[in-house]
Amino acid sequence: MLPADTPVLLALLIVSAVTSGFVALRYFASSGLFAWITQRVRPGLYDGKERQIGREIRWSLIAAFIYGTPAGMVFWAWNHLGWTQLYTDFSAYPLWYLPASVLICLFAQDTWFYWSHRAMHHPKLFRVMHAVHHDSRPPTSWTAMSFHPIESLTGALLIPVLVFVVPIHIAMLGVVLTVATVMGVTNHMGWEMFPRALVHSPLGNWMITASHHEKHHERYGCNFGLYFRFWDRLCGTDRGLSKRMVEQSGYGEKGVRI
Ligand SMILES: [Zn+2]
Ligand SMILES: [Zn+2]
């Protein structure tokens, strides 16, 4: 806790630096954990990728700073000025609203990601903003936050803006951030952790896991979504799952043994 008479600018600076530190720690903890699991279940998958992983970590640390700065400022404004629609009292809204608020935020994030991501694949924007992320060929669990700073900025502002618009309990915001972290890492780690029964199920047809995002990194011009296949299907940009990953699992796209 900062002393009450800390100048606002200094307080914002400190809170932003601390939040950026947390984002960086979260990155190391989550990407490191799944890299360790990868080494156990797919030994050698990241062999020879030391240079790529070093690059991914450097971009991700810059991204952590860009993500942490607005998040820290908004957190301070919530704490000191009561701004935002964040709440802590579970009875402030009906209980059904708790999961609903998570879904609203995930859908908003997915929508923003789909359209900004698709725009970044325009050749002019791609070179400037998005080539860094696609430099990882194929991606690893360390690719999750490997973005050019301008791309990071497009992602970093969404949640801080969203909490001003969508009422959300602080614990549910924690759920949203956990989903974002886990899916961001596992969608890049090069193998499918979800059971085949889920990936090849009607629900799996609408959600994005590693098998789907890997295809984006193979083919570029398709599979732009983040969590759901809704926009990809609606806009005709869904090209199904990565053949390599489906073959690895021994099952065809429809879940039939191959
Ligand atoms: Zn990616
Ligand atoms: Zn892309």
TrEMBL record:
Location, primary (coarse class): membrane
Protein keywords: Membrane, Transmembrane, Transmembrane helix
Segments traversing the membrane: 12-37, 57-76, 96-115, 155-185
Domain Fatty acid hydroxylase: 102-237
Subcellular location: Membrane
Residue ranges of coiled coil: none
Pfam entry (one): FA_hydroxylase
InterPro entries associated with the record: Fatty_acid_hydroxylase, Sterol_Desaturase_Related
Protein name: Sterol desaturase family protein
